[in-house]
Amino acid sequence: MGMTFTPVSVMVMKRVPLAQAGMASATLNMLREIGGVVGVAALGTVLTSRLAATLTGSLDRLDVPPEIRHGIEDSVAGTGADRTQVLPAPVHDAVNTAFIEGLRLALRCGGAAMAAAAVLVAVLLRPASSQATAPVGKPTQQDEPAYP
Hints:
By secondary structure, this protein is mainly alpha-helical. It is built from five helices and no strands.
């Protein structure tokens, strides 16, 4: 028993009359772009928040003075990691660990969001039944689906 995979965009386009195919395609592309932008922003926020929280806790445990701590946090969160190479080994390890923790959480959140979206699509976008899509009379161009 093989399971066939049909992309969501094709499933949506099969349900749209040919006269509205352009509008449906444009809407799908717009939603895909918005989802990409919002997803990157949200996961970037999750990564940065976890990185900052983990790094702050690690620097507290290492008793790093506040004036040095702010420089470390700014270099990691702002201008880049090039300056982290000159840090003492325990602080450098704390920065790396904080980044890895942030990345792990962001990837878990992204995976959970994808799983939730897959379930939502499976529930809301079931294949059209043959009885529901069979035309009663002779089909017109407007009544035909965009894709056969």
